[in-house]
Amino acid sequence: MDLELLRELSVPNDTKILLLVIDGLGGLPNETGRSELEQANIQRLDRLAQESMCGLTVPVAPGVTPGSGPGHLALFGYDPEKYTVGRGVLEALGIDFDLQPSDVAARGNFCTVDAEGRITDRRAGRIPTEKTVELCDRLRRIGLPGVQVFVEPVREHRFLLVLRGEGLSDKLTETDPQREGVKPLPVRATAPEAETTARLLNDFIAQAADLLKGHEPANMLTLRGLAKHPPMPSIAEICRFRAGAIAAYPMYRGLAKLVGMDVLKTGSTFADEVETLKQRWDDYDFLFIHFKKADAAGEDGDFQAKIAALEEVDGYIDELHNLQADVFMIAGDHSTPAVLAGHSWHPVPFLFHAKKFSRHDSTEGFNEKACARGVLGTFPAKDVLSLAMAHALRLTKYGA
Amino acid sequence: MDLELLRELSVPNDTKILLLVIDGLGGLPNETGRSELEQANIQRLDRLAQESMCGLTVPVAPGVTPGSGPGHLALFGYDPEKYTVGRGVLEALGIDFDLQPSDVAARGNFCTVDAEGRITDRRAGRIPTEKTVELCDRLRRIGLPGVQVFVEPVREHRFLLVLRGEGLSDKLTETDPQREGVKPLPVRATAPEAETTARLLNDFIAQAADLLKGHEPANMLTLRGLAKHPPMPSIAEICRFRAGAIAAYPMYRGLAKLVGMDVLKTGSTFADEVETLKQRWDDYDFLFIHFKKADAAGEDGDFQAKIAALEEVDGYIDELHNLQADVFMIAGDHSTPAVLAGHSWHPVPFLFHAKKFSRHDSTEGFNEKACARGVLGTFPAKDVLSLAMAHALRLTKYGA
Fold this sequence. Notes:
- The structure is a homodimer.
- Chain A is an alpha/beta fold.
- Chain A has 15 helices and 13 strands.
- In chain A, helix 9 (250-258) links the parallel strand 8 (243-246) and strand 9.
C-alpha cells in the first residue's frame, strides 16, 4: 500500500518488528549448479524458514538492478520509483556528513585534462585516497559569496562537495560529459530558481581549475548528481512507532536517518550491532539491523567469501530470534551474485517469521529456489513493511 | 485491467459467468496447525479445485484488512482504493434503504451526555434496538426547511439519517469527537458548496438534543460518515452483460445495486438463494450469489461453526457446478479467521473453473496452502472479473 494509506490505517500497539537486512543477500549458482545460499551451511536460517512464510522480493521492478538507496528505501516501505535520493546526497550519507535540508551536495570526481582542457582520464588514474585528501584540503581555500563550501574526500578520485546557504536549488545539470576527448560541461540551471546556484558552482569550478593546475593526473574535476536532501515523510510518524536503526556503515545509517529512524550508536562489527540491538530492544517498536559482508564478498566476485559471510550471519540467527519479536523479517536490499561481481536485478530471498497469524508452510530452506516456491511468492519489496504492520496488529480496517 | 480498458474490450457473447462469494472465506490454523478449510470435510470443493485454476486473491493491498465494501467491490472489478463507499451509504445499504444519488446519508449513534453536554458514553450503553426504534420515531418529528428527513433504526444504538433535497453536499466533518469527556462537535463544511447542508444538519442536531432531553442514557446523538451515493460506473454497462445479484443480506444487495446489477428477490437462506439462481439462470449472463455464514462464524471466533458453515456451502457445490456456467468462480471478499474473530488482511483462497481454455493443474484441495501453490498464484482481487470475461470469450483483442 502507499504511504498515505499506511498513514491512515496505522495504529499504535505494543508489538515489535525486527528487520535484518543481509546486504546483497541473493545470489546465483556457480559451476556447481548451486548458489551461495544453497552451498552455505546455514542450518539456523534453513530451520527458521520452515517455520516462516518465505518468498522473493523484487526491489524496484523486474529486471532493475538497484543501488543501495532504492534497495533499502523499498524495504522501509517507500516506492523506490517515487522516492529517489540523488547521488550527491548518497555520497554525503556514505561519509556520515551531516547534510542539512537546504544544502546542495554533489559527487566530485578528480580527472585529467590536456592542455586544451579536454578530458583524457575521467578518473584521474584512480589516484590513491591520500592524494584526494591532500587535494580536498587545497580546494578548501575556495571562497564563494554568501555560502559555506565543504569539500570532503571519499575514496580514490571521489570527493563530496556541499554548498550551504539560503535559496540554493538542485535543478542543475552535471559537468561530466561521460566520455573522454571533450571538455567538462558547465553547470546549467534547468529552472530559473537555480541560476544563482549554477553561477556559484561554475565559480567554484573555475577557482578549482586554477588550484589544480600542475597536479596531474588530478588537474581538473567534474561534478555529478547535484542534489538536495529529498523531502521524505518520516516512517516513524507514518507508522506511529519508535524506529531505530543499527548499522556499522555510514550510508545505511544515513538512509535510515533520511526516513525518520533514530540512528543508534554502535561498533564496527556485526557482533557490536547485535549487542546494541539487545541493549536498546525495549526502546523501540521497529528495529532495523544491517549486515554488510555478504554484499562486499559478492561485489568482489568471491563466491567462497560470500558463503562464509552467509555462514557468519547464520550464527546470529538464534540470538535474534530469541528476542521474540512479533515479526522477524530477514531480507536483502538486492542480490549481489558472486558470479556477477556486482549488484543484480534478481529477486531476493525473503523470510517472514510472525509469532501469530502466520500461514507458513514449511519452506525447505532459505535459498533462492526454495523461496521462489514459498507461500509469499514473488512480490514487491515495498510491501514488506505493510505485511509486518498487519501481522503486528498495527493496522486498522480499511472501509466499512 | 482498469474499468476503462474493460469497457473498451468487452463484447457480448452467449456465455455465462457465476460468482459465488463465500463471505470471510479465508482462515488461519488453530492449535491443531490446520485452518478451518483444511479441517472441514469439503470434498466437493476439494474435488472441483483439482479441475480448476486456484490461487489467492489480495482484496485491497498486502497487509490491508478490508471491510465488506472494498472486499466486494474488488471482486466486482472495481479498484477498492479508487472507488470508496462512505459509512453512511453502507449503513443505508445495510437496511435496504432506497438511497437516491442526491441524498446525504449519515451513520447516527445515540450517546449519553452530562449536564454540561459532555459525552459520558459514546454508545449510550448500547441501548436495545427496540429503544432505538422508539427514539427514531421521536426524531421523525424534526422538520428542516426545503429537505425531507429520514431517520431509520439500524441496531442497538445505531441509526441512519438521510437528508433528501436539491444541492446537498457531503463535504462535511463528523460530530463524534471519538472520545468521552468532551462535547460533540458541530458539523462543518469542508467546501463552500456544503455550507447549507452543514447548517441543516446542525439544525437537526439542535432539535434532536431537545427531543432527547431526559431520555438517558440516549440523551444525545453523533453523526459519522456523512456521504452521498458515490458515482459508480455500471458493471453491466461496462461488460455489456446482464448482471444479477442474489443475496439474503441487505448490505450485499446494496453493494450489487451500487455497481449496476439487478438485485433479485430471494428468501432468507442460502437454499432460497440457490433456488432463485436456478429459476433466474436464463435471464442473466453474470450472476453473483452470496453466502454469509462463514464470515459470521469467523467474526464470532467460533472455529467449529466456521467449519460447519464451510461444510454447508460445500453441500451446494455440485448443484451450482451442474448449472454449467462457462466460468464458475468461488471467492471470498476477505479472510475472517476464527482465531482473529474478525476480518483480516490474509489473501483469500480462490477457485476458477472454466469449461474451456483452462490451464488447471490439479490443486490438491481448496484451502489456503493448496491455493498458495495454485497456478494463479497470489494476485489482486480486482483482476478476477477480467479473467472471467476472457475465459467466457467476452473480451476482444487489445491492439493490432
